[in-house]
Design brief:
Length: 221
């Protein structure tokens, strides 16, 4: 599915979130500042926007981006070439089976990716394994807003309007219906903190962003 929508993914991302996705990524990057990381992995990097934000914030760090979809990685690599950001490495790989030695990274980020893992626990345990002791995992993921006024308005947009735009622009009839359904299924907030604990992390805190449309999770190894 991500191969199908790769060519329109960046446009749709920024358009449908009215550009707010940039500020969500910046907040995620800030959670790594106190570690002064020198080696960072952006898992499920897609077209690499979070990897680029990491590289800008930590110019001396080595940033690797990994994604399951060759189409997304190809679009990401074109973007890196265009922007001359050649010190970021993007490659194809599976979060649930990484060909990377244990204790490699100071920080790992995942932007809107964990929801798509086939087996959430297997993926989280792999991320835990490749983090060095005291390293940090930062996850951004969509959530269902909790506010009693905002929630029904947003859910109406999310269920009925967003899939129409998404279908029109991406030409993929299912991608944005899948987005709605996968967010419904995802164990958000405290439930995701429990998933992190079960995978071996010390789940530190979570923050709701934009009234809970998105949630930022921080966990240490
Ligand atoms: C919604 S996109 C997010 C892309 C990017 N992180 C961003 O913030 O825009 C989700 C990405 O997760 C990737 N993905 C899903 N399952 C994965 C897995 N097991 N391993 C690596 N990437 C995966 C998909 O290929 C897709 O590119």
């Amino acid at each position: 599915m991500f191969d199908n929508i790769a060519h329109r993914y960046d446009f749709l991302n920024h358009f449908l979130s009215v550009g707010i996705d940039h500020s969500w990524r910046k907040k995620a990057v800030r959670q790594l500042r106190e570690l002064a990381p020198s080696k960072i992995l952006d898992m499920a990097t897609g077209t690499g926007d979070l990897a680029i934000a990491l590289q800008k914030a930590f110019p001396d760090a080595e940033v690797d981006g990994i994604d399951l979809s060759p189409g997304m990685i190809a679009v990401g690599n074109e973007k890196l070439q265009r922007k001359k950001l050649l010190n970021i490495t993007l490659k194809v790989g599976d979060a649930e089976d990484l060909d990377i030695p244990s204790n490699t990274y100071d920080g790992v980020t995942v932007g809107f990716g964990v929801r798509n893992f086939e087996n959430l626990q297997v993926g989280l345990r792999e991320l835990h394994r490749v983090l060095r002791p005291k390293g940090r995992l930062v996850v951004l993921e969509f959530s269902q807003p909790r506010g009693f006024l905002f929630r029904p308005l947003f859910m109406f947009y999310f269920k009925n309007i967003l899939p129409l735009y998404g279908k029109f622009v991406s030409k993929d009839p299912k991608a944005y219906t899948y987005l709605f359904e996968s967010v419904q299924r995802f164990p958000a907030y405290e439930d995701f903190m429990n998933e992190l604990q079960s995978a071996g992390f010390n789940a530190r805190y979570y923050k709701q962003l934009t009234f809970g449309v998105c949630c930022l999770y921080v966990a240490d190894k």
